[in-house]
Structures are given as C-alpha cells and as structure tokens.
Design a protein that fits this description.
Structural class: alpha+beta
Distance between the termini: 126 Å
Shape: globular
Strand order of the largest sheet: 5-4-1-2-3-7-6
Helix content: 10-25%
Number of strands: 26
Number of helices: 13
Mean pLDDT: 77
Largest sheet: 7 strands, antiparallel
Radius of gyration: 30 Å
C-alpha cells in the first residue's frame, strides 16, 4: 500500500514539473517570437497581424457614398444596327444604368466615373438614407474617366480626402459602392500594386485606332490596384484607407467574365482633386503636356528589344520620340533619353510619369532627371497646353459654304441627351446648299466625319482632308434621336 501511494505521489509530482516546464518554455518561445527560433532574435513586427477593425471607417464613409441611377433616351439605347440595316422598326423602351459616386462637399458636389453618366439623359442620386436628388452634370474628363455632378443640398455627409502618394502596397483598404444593383456594400482587401496601366481608356474601337507602340491618345492611367471585391455598379465609388480617407475612385475590374476576378483599379485621389478643381474653376481640365512619346506598358519590352535594348537595363521611361515644337524639344530632350525622375520624385513607368505631368498646368516648369548615354542629366521643361487647331474666319466661311451649313460644338446638355463624348450640331441650313439637298435638317448632330470624332470646324476640315477617295461619311443623330450614316462624294 505504501509503495502504491509513493508511486502515485511521484507521478503527480512529475506531471506538475512537466506543466511548469512547458509554461516556462512557452514563455521563452513567446519572447523569442518564434517557436523554432534558434537564434533568439525577435521577429519583425507586422502592422497587419491580427484582425483589423474596419467598423469605424465603414461607418464614417458609407453615408457619403451614393447610388447613381441613369436614364437613357429610348431612341439612343434601343438602336440595333441589324434592324437599321434592313429598315426594321426599333424598340422604344428607355434603358437605365447604375453606378456609384462620392460626396466630396457638404453643398453637394459628387465625383463619379465619366462612363457611369456618359450620354445619360437623366441622372438621379440616392443617398443611403433614401434621400433622392436630381443631379446636374458640371463637367467631365474622359482622359481620366472622371465626372463631376452637383445636387442641391446642404450639410450633406462627405468622405474626407486622403493622400494617394502615401498609399503603400500591402496596406488594408475598403471599397464602398453599389455593386450589382445591391444597396450600399463594403468590401475589404489590400493595395496590390500602384501605377497600373491597363489600356482601358481611349482604347481602339472607342474613338479610333490607337497606335500600340506609343501613347498617341490622351488617356491617363496610373491606377491603384486592389484585391477588394469590385463588381459592375462599384464604378465611381470610394476606395478608402482604414482611417476612412478617400484614396481613390473605383473605376475598373480585370475580368474575362465581367464580374469580379480578383483585381480592381481606382483613380488616385490626388489626380482626381486636380481634375475636379479644374472643372469647377474653368469648366474643363487644363493640362500641361510634356511633348514626348513612349511605349505603352503592354508592348514596352517588345519594342525595346526590337531596338536592341535590354529592358532590364532601362530604369525609368524610355523616350521613343520628341514632338516638334514641344516643351520637351525646346528643353533639349532627345529620342533615347530615359526619364528617371520629375521634381525630385522617382518615376519607373510611363503610367507614373503621365500622372505626375497631368497634375500640372500649361506654363508650369518641371525638372526632369534624365539618363543619356549612361550619364545623368537635368532638364527644365516648360509644359505647353493642348494645342487646338483653329480655322480662320475666311476658311471657316468657305468650309461652311461648301457644306451649306453652319456648325457649333455640342453643349454638355446635348452630350447627355445624345450620350456622346464629342460632336457638333447644325445650327443653320443654307437653302439650296449641300445639306439642304441631302435632307439634313437643322439640329442634326454630326459625331464623326470619315470615322474621326469631330468637335469643331477644324476637326471637320482635317477629316475631310484625310479622304483620298473624295467620298465623305457622316455619322450622326437626327433631332428626333435617330442614328444615321450618310456617304456622299464631296468633290475636289
């Protein structure tokens, strides 16, 4: 009996010692930061360890992210090219669209994407508290896919603005919007990349052919990429940091199905602020131009290799050409130069360079850090404005007399009505003139001439001059909303 009791006590004592020893070992392991850390060095502290709390940020932001509902003219949305080809009657049911927007001022200014409201005949804004407003379009900037709306209200909720330059890859973010016609929805993810260019703005098929070798259009893409879930309807909504500050406007998704497939893209808020400020002050965006051509990211490596250049040895933006008469040419920039910085900030991609330049105005001076023939150089460039070709009064009268019509640029309201980004309209028909004989009435909108978008007499003149066959093609819309394509010989 005594022997059994002794054995039992020894077992109990062994168990206690084992537990104490484990606790001591566990404590040492915790201090070392790694169960298998033989060196005893502390593990690095990671800010995202644990469960981040998004409740406060979501609560602060959600009231100021609005649902944008658009209405489209029935004659514009129901056109079927097959029906038109055979003269078949068209349907007349109006179409509706849905997107998101962000309130940025208490008196009702709202930022959204241009493609959300593009060509809409009516825009309705619904707040999360169910208040509804009719919105006025203040202005658009297709180059960045931004639009500014205004509703009549006071003391409205707003999303505070952050600083997109300080955004870091890997930090937590929230996407807030109205996806798939759902009510206000919040999703979370991280910033997975910055300075992304995905070729979605001004792409071929939307306004004409774009040379893939060079930035021949005015699209400015330097997106913040995130893996927060974004779907159709999120466009124009908010991308915010965990402090509830706006860092981007959600714009696009990378998907082969049209639905979320892992990546979303947002316009940086610092670029947005410049665009919005310009629209409010000038009615349009005033943007400085450097005057250089460079490869778009999709074909950059291919083009560099075709010139015998190892892409791995190009740190910066390789200049493919310099535009004659531009600020870049006047500052001495040359083909083959590599731009590595602007105003003391490093640039590694053409997307980053485009965004930095786009924040400046015509007449601004920027200092570029260049690499030429392996040597570092500096160049100060005075940015120029977007040159708009004009037609002299004599030439304008001659062109209008030749066509038998007078023209004026489309107003913003007309662009909404006809869902167009460009165009002119016929203000007057001259009796017995060409347009009169062709039966084209006053108020007709001409969107393209010979396949080229037109916004002025200068555009019409250039498009007519580009016709080698003497034939002219007009694409437009009659005053009743009917689309037409008209081909005719204009003669020499």
């Amino acid at each position: 009996m005594g022997k059994a009791v002794g054995t039992f006590l020894i077992a109990i004592l062994s168990a206690v010692l084992a537990i104490v020893g484990y606790k001591l070992f566990e404590g040492n392991s915790s201090q070392n930061g790694n169960f298998n850390n033989n060196s005893g060095a502390a593990m690095p502290v990671v800010s995202s360890v644990g469960n981040p709390d998004f409740v406060a940020a979501a609560a602060n932001v959600t009231p100021a992210v609005v649902h944008i509902k658009t209405l489209y003219n029935a004659a514009q949305t129901s056109r079927n090219p097959i029906y038109e080809m055979f003269g078949m009657p068209q349907q007349s049911t109006p179409a509706r669209g849905s997107g998101s927007g962000v309130l940025i001022s208490k008196d009702g200014y709202i930022v959204t994407n241009n493609h959300v409201i593009d060509r809409a005949s009516g825009i309705e804004v619904v707040l999360p508290d169910r208040r509804t407003f009719e919105a006025k379009l203040i202005g658009t900037d297709p180059s960045t896919d931004l639009a500014l709306l205004k509703v009549e209200g006071g003391d409205l909720p707003v999303v505070p603005l952050g600083d997109s330059d300080k955004v870091q890859v890997g930090e937590w973010v929230l996407a807030v919007g109205y996806p798939l016609s759902l009510n206000s929805t919040v999703t979370a993810g991280i910033v997975s990349a910055k300075g992304r260019s995905i070729g979605i703005l001004n792409r071929p098929g939307q306004g004409g052919y774009v040379d893939p070798a060079q930035v021949a259009n005015t699209a400015i893409e330097s997106f913040i990429q995130t893996d927060a879930a974004i779907n159709p309807g999120n466009s124009g909504g908010a991308l915010v940091n965990t402090s509830g500050q706006l860092i981007g406007i959600n714009t696009a998704i990378a998907s082969q199905t049209g639905s979320y497939a892992g990546y979303g893209f947002a316009i940086p808020v610092n670029l947005m602020q410049k665009v919005v400020s310009d629209i409010r002050e000038f009615g349009r965006v005033r943007r400085g131009f450097l005057g250089v051509n460079f490869p778009v990211p999709a074909v950059e490596d291919q083009l560099l290799r075709s010139r015998g250049i190892d892409p791995g040895k190009v740190s910066g933006v390789y200049i493919m050409g310099v535009q004659p008469g531009s600020g870049a040419e006047k500052a001495g920039l040359k083909e083959g130069d590599i731009i590595q910085g602007i105003n003391g900030i490093d640039v590694n991609t053409s997307a980053e360079l485009s965004e930095r330049i786009a924040r400046h105005y015509p007449g601004d001076k920027v200092e570029l850090a260049l690499l030429r023939d392996g040597k570092q150089r500096k160049a100060t460039v005075t940015l120029q404005g977007e040159e708009e070709e004009t037609v002299s009064d004599t030439a304008a009268k001659g062109l209008e007399a030749r066509l038998g019509a007078n023209f004026a640029p489309l107003t913003d309201r007309m662009k909404q009505q006809y869902r167009l980004n460009e165009g002119v309209y016929v203000t007057k028909i001259q009796p017995g003139g060409f347009f009169d004989s062709a039966g084209i009435p006053e108020g007709t909108v001409v969107a393209r001439v010979n396949g080229r978008p037109v916004n002025s007499l200068a555009d019409i003149s250039k498009s007519l001059a580009a016709s080698r066959s003497g034939m002219v093609r007009l694409d437009g819309i009659t005053p009743d909303g009917t689309a037409f394509v008209f081909n005719f010989p204009l003669g020499a």
